[in-house]
Amino acid sequence: MPIGSLNGKDEDKTADRTGSIAATPAAVTTGQAVTEGPVEADLAIARATVSEVLGRGGKDTSAPWENPITGARGTVTPVASSYTQDGFTCRDFLASYVRAGAEAWLQGEACRMHQGRWEVRSLKPWKRS
User: Fold this and answer.
1) Nearest-angstrom CA–CA distance, 122 and 129
2) pTM of the entire predicted model
């Protein structure tokens, strides 16, 4: 039932709508770069995976991530050694992002914040140097 009818208004006779996920454009062909950029729902899952993989510690670790709703997936891999910044232990990482046959790489920095939880401080498209 449309919300308007609950309030006694029958002006909106359109179908019920919920959620806020925008429609996505048609997929690009396999092997091309992601042109639209990652969506926030995908980035949230990637960030959680960063926290998980860095929290496990260890050397040369990586972990896959996937968003079953959007079909996006990738892998998070810490790079280099940890360092101290602003009094926190931090580490850089790379994350792959694959969606609809297109792929991209993201680079980021995560730091062990209060209560020992790793939080992503930056995440942006990877720039080859």
Assistant:
1) 18
2) 0.69
pLDDT of residue 72: 97
**Token digits of residue 41:** 């729902």
Residue 128 in tokens: 């080859």
DSSP for 3-46, written as a single string:
HHHHTT-----SPP----PPPPPPPPPTTSBPSS---HHHHHHH
Spatial distance between the Cα atoms of 14 and 75, rounded to a whole number of angstroms: 41
pLDDT means over runs of 10, the chain (129 residues) = 42 39 36 65 96 87 95 95 94 95 95 93 87
46 domain residue, yes or no? yes
Domain range for residue 46? 30-125
Query: Rounded to an integer, what distance in angstroms lies between the CA atom of residue 104 and that of residue 94?
Result: 11
- Measured CA to CA, the distance from residue 79 to residue 106 in angstroms comes to 12
